[in-house]
Amino acid sequence: MEFRGRLSRRSFMASASAMGIAATGSTWGGKLLAANHLPDPQSVLDGISISQYVRADYRDLYGMSDDKPIWDSSKDWIRTVDWEKVRSELSGTTVRFAVGAADAESAAEGLVPFEALSGITVELVPIPDDSFYDKALAEFISGNASFDALQFFSPWLGDFAAPGFLYPLQDFADKWNLPLDDFYDTYRLNYGYFNGQMYGIPFDCDIQMVHLRKGYVEQVLGGPIDKVNSVPTYDELIRLSAELNQVEPGVSGVGLMAAPGFWSTYSWEHVSAQAGMMLFDENWEPIFNGDAGMKGLEILLALSKNANEGHAGAGWPENRAAWLGGQVATNISWQDSGTQAMRPDQSQIVDDFVTIYEPRISGGRFAPPNIAGSTSCVSASAQNPEGAFLMLGFLTTASIMAMNEANANGVAPGYKSVLENENLQAVSQPAKVWGDSLHHAWCSPRLPGAFPIEQAIGNEINRAVVGQISAKEALDNAAAAVKQIMSSNGFYQGNDPVDYAQAAPGLYVGEGKDLPF
């Protein structure tokens, strides 16, 4: 989970050279276009390995090696697809890939293995990081986008899919046997599908979780932490964080992200989902200012009394720094707060933390929040849509995503075969709880106007956090603003751009399921 500036997302490429992809890629030299001049696919695949991709210090720290795989090769698409067939059909073609300008160099290096496997050349289309959304949207509107493929923040899926800017991918997924059943439902439905059509392949698959400092929490609790029972409710987290606020000078009871805009929205959604909150009814009328949303905001406001200094201006970067720097005793954040906290070069709290199962709310449900994340899509005007799909399949394959997690670079896998792998769980502390939780995940719908909706809600919640308005005023104001945004994006006019019945299955996937504990 990482944001750059207002709109851009960390791409896979930003961490590619650090993972060793550049070094691995250099083995095959320059551009190889003709299928008969390409290396044996197995030799390329053998190089996409723990020993080549995962940092040496992390391999040493956790005893990682190629004979202890952190993925299932039978589910790893790059090891099951017929590369000779790919070459026979598409070798010599070109794919234009939109990337953040800062990532262009590492992207070129990171895609060398794909070019060697497929014979497809990838040309990068750099877009300034801080204006990625606006530039991509402008190109889509022009009807002649300069790129075939792009990866972007998953809430934007509605903005790009509803107007017809994206290419349907189901036929390619069927033809090339993409293992869609290996994705957790929440990612497959919300990052892959829009109005019943497949437009994306899940890329960075986030979830928000609750993390505890073992030393401080065990001191207050008087014994070891139980991941299920030590903090079973948000009422208990409020009580615990108040006590933890007094444990040591300079350490706050809880870390919160409550900056204006989407940061406050995400924190509020996280808690409110446990109270049973849904953002809309079946007619797309905002209902989040009802009892469940109010309960979540009241809990957030109670927690804020015990929160880190500056929490009302804190987003992910500030929260990450406070957690990894040992300045908060508990933390509500993304899953990578657990993985990165294990790494000595990133963290000052190694071996002194644990990620727990989501606390519950009386009368609510167990609904861990799938918030943020990113997806991979093909432009409707792509000159080489099939080649673009294959490139995105390579970038999102299970083995590469597993090694992203092993490298703790913030790019998260969404595969059951990865998070349920015991070798992966040994190098990613939250993975077991994370994987269990995803079977019950809550997610906001992918709507046109999702970003301004998140901004509008969060701006009002932040005003409540800093005491300018009441919780009720905040949510009522937000509901009115969201209704206006929805209207301006074509809702309530008899032909909604999103069919609620199509979106509903992804909004909460835990209905009727047994709890994992």
From TrEMBL:
Lineage of origin: Bacteria, Pseudomonadati, Pseudomonadota, Alphaproteobacteria, Rhodobacterales
PROSITE patterns: TAT
Protein name per UniProt: Extracellular solute-binding protein
TM stretches of this protein: none
A GO CC annotation given for this chain: periplasmic space
Subcellular location: Periplasm
Main location (coarse class): periplasm
Provenance organism: Marivita cryptomonadis
Database matches in InterPro entries: Bact_solute-bd_prot1, SBP, TAT_signal
PANTHER family hit by this protein: ARABINOSE-BINDING PROTEIN-RELATED
Entry similarity comment: Belongs to the bacterial solute-binding protein 1 family.
SUPFAM superfamilies per UniProt: Periplasmic binding protein-like II
